[in-house]
Write a structure and sequence with these properties.
Elements lengths: L3 H9 L4 H13 L4 H7 L4 H13 L13
C-alpha cells in the first residue's frame, strides 16, 4: 500500500489519479504488458499506454513493456 506521503510525491511529479493507479498496480504485480494494465485498471489502451509511458519517463519503474502489439 502506498503511503499518503508517497501518493503526494507522485502527484507532485505530475501523475494523475489514473497514473497513480497504474503505478500502484505495477508496483504490486511487477512489469506487465499494456493489455493487462488496461484491463486491471479499467483504462482504455491509449490511457494505459500514456500512463505507463509517463511512469517510465519519470524513472519510477524501468523496463515497462510499451509495445503496441500486446
Amino acid at each position: 500500500m502506498l503511503s499518503f506521503q508517497h501518493l503526494y510525491q507522485l502527484r507532485e511529479r505530475g501523475l494523475s489519479f489514473s497514473g497513480i493507479l497504474v503505478y500502484a498496480y505495477l508496483k504490486e504485480h511487477g512489469v506487465q504488458p499494456v493489455q493487462r494494465v488496461m484491463k486491471a485498471c479499467d483504462l482504455s489502451r491509449s490511457s494505459a499506454y500514456a500512463m505507463m509511458k509517463k511512469i517510465e519517463e519519470l524513472s519510477l519503474i524501468e523496463g515497462l513493456q510499451l509495445s503496441h502489439s500486446s
